[in-house]
Write a structure and sequence with these properties.
This protein is of the alpha/beta class. It is built from 8 helices and 8 strands; from the N terminus they run H-E-H-E-H-E-H-E-H-E-H-E-H-E-H-E. The protein starts with a helix and ends in a 9-residue tail after the last strand. Bound molecules: pyridoxal-5'-phosphate (PLP). Pyridoxal-5'-phosphate binds next to strand 8.
Length: 234
């Protein structure tokens, strides 16, 4: 094993242990939490090292970078996640490459995905991104508008909503991030309580390198971890 492979394998093991520990202390089954390794800062060597470490769910935040990596890597187990803002003119090329779009942040984007997916009679699994931090620089639905939009979203037959995605406010740490995760979980519970046919709310995609353990304690089913998987040293 190269030094890079060893370093990344060690980081993956550590993060998986932290995920398991956070799940156990909140009375959850560790297997109910998926790790998406975010590769936006790194190149192909690091991606291959992740695959060697049996990290098969990978996330990218920029469509062009996603396409590049998808084209470069053919591996039977890889599953890509789109986690960043998706411009509508990039939808067509992105959809066939991904297993889940986390970052659906507007009705117009959802409608575009629906139209494109309809061409091939596909159904695209998506999450609705919520701007729980209320940060005007961030994308996402406002928590207040989602309930009234759900019936319209449910009418889009070529998308399938599986839950919500969100981020703590910029500059949060593992302590100060908690209220944002609570807010997203409570919103998820409220929306599933409404029970719009065709809308599922089983997934909560929340938690990054600095706060994924807190996110798991608050109910995350998918954590999106980048930076710490590539750090050096102990
Ligand atoms: C970059 C990014 C992450 C991972 O962040 P790290 O701090 O590197 O773990 C997670 N989610 C989204 C949407 C991102 O853009």
């Amino acid at each position: 094993m190269s030094e890079l492979q060893q370093q990344i394998a060690g980081n993956v093991t550590r993060v998986r242990e932290q995920i398991d520990a956070a799940a156990r202390r909140s009375g959850r089954d560790p297997r109910s939490i998926r790790l998406v390794a975010v590769t936006k800062y790194v190149g192909l060597n690091e991606v291959l090292a992740l695959l060697d470490a049996r990290c098969f769910e990978l996330g990218e935040s920029r469509p062009q970078e996603l396409w590049k990596k998808v084209d470069a890597i053919s591996h039977p187990h890889v599953q890509w996640h789109m986690i960043g803002h998706l411009q509508r003119n990039k939808v067509r090329r992105t959809l066939p490459a991904v297993r889940l779009v986390h970052s659906c942040d507007s009705l117009r984007l959802l409608q575009t995905i629906d139209t494109e997916a309809g061409r091939d009679a596909h159904v695209i699994p998506v999450l609705l991104e919520v701007n729980v931090a209320g940060d005007t620089a961030k994308h996402g639905f406002s928590p207040d508008e989602l309930a009234s939009l759900l019936p319209t979203i449910a009418d889009l037959r070529h998308i399938k909503v599986h839950g919500l995605m969100g981020m703590a406010a910029r500059g949060s740490d593992r302590v100060t991030a908690r209220p944002y995760f609570v807010r997203l979980r409570e919103l998820r519970d409220r929306l599933s309580g409404i029970g719009v046919p065709g809308i599922q709310m089983e997934e909560l995609s929340m938690g990054m390198s600095g706060d994924f353990e807190t996110a798991i304690e608050e109910g995350a089913t998918i954590v999106r971890v980048g930076k710490t998987l590539f750090s050096g040293g102990p």
